[in-house]
Predict the 3D structure of the following.
Amino acid sequence: MIEPADEALLRRAIDIAARAVTLGDAPFGSLLAGPDGTVIAEAHNTVRRDDDITAHPELKLARWAAGRLDRETAAGTTLYTSCQPCGMCAGALALSGVGRVVYALSTSQLVQLVPVLGSWSAVPQDGPGLFDEARGPVETYFGER
């Protein structure tokens, strides 16, 4: 549930997105806030500038949190973002330990505003295959932990 305190931080994420546009970057911005609402990190989309398809602000902040925060601290944070995280970013956020995500625009709302963004099709996947061969490295790695 989005609370009034969340709205102020969402507005800041939208401001970061607007600032990104003035810099020639895509209109996506995010921030990471501690449990008391203090902003601890900010990022905006730099896919075009960095020529890096992974330069989404949510992924940048997931990396930042994973590298600088212990699990307990990360679990107390909230990521505020101008648009709902894509699958890549959602996976990184889950692995980073960030406790919560609050977004301003849903993916479906974004696609309504910019229909071309909904035109990408999923990459076909085939599998599973070679279970007995693939399990060895996995069991070795996780068995040693």
